[in-house]
Amino acid sequence: MKKQHYSNLKYIRTVFFVDKKYFVLVDEAVGYAKGTINLNFQMCETPSDVSLVKEENAIYTNYRGNSNVKLQCFSDHAITMNEKEGWQSVKYNEKTQRTSISYDVKKTDTTPVRYITVIYPVTSVNEYPEIDAKFTDGGYSKGKIGVKISIGSVKKSLEGDITGVTD
Fold it and tell me: What would the DSSP string read from start to end of 36-48?
C-alpha cells in the first residue's frame, strides 16, 4: 500500500502473513519532510487489558479468553513509544476511551524512516514469545524489502518487492 499523505512525504506499508500464524508490517516514510513520524495503533476499550512495556516498544493484551496478542515495534532509528488519547464509538454521540499508542521517530533529513512491527497472537498470556526483528536489505531501496524475524528460537527471513505496484 502506498499513500502520498503530504506533497513531501510518501507512506508505504508492506504486510507479511508468516506461516499463517502472525503478521509482520513494514512501514516506510519516504520523502523530504522533516519532523516526527508517528506510527499509531489503537487497542481495546479497557485500558486495564493492555500492558505497555516501553523498554521493549511492546504492547501485551490480557483479554479474557484465548485471544491475545503481543505487538512489538522495531526500527533502524531511535523509537519513542508514547501513550496517546484514544477513543472509539459504537453508538452515535457516545464515545469510550481506549488505549492508543504512537511509535515516534524524529526525521531530520531525507533518510527514510522505517519500522518493523510484529503482531503475534497467543491463546494464553503465558505464551508470549521473545521477538526480535531487523532490516537486512541495506536500507530503503524503492520497494525492495528484507527483514529477519526471530520468534523465540525460530528465525525467518522475509523479502518483498513492490517496485511494480503503482500509487
Answer: EEEEEEE--S-GG
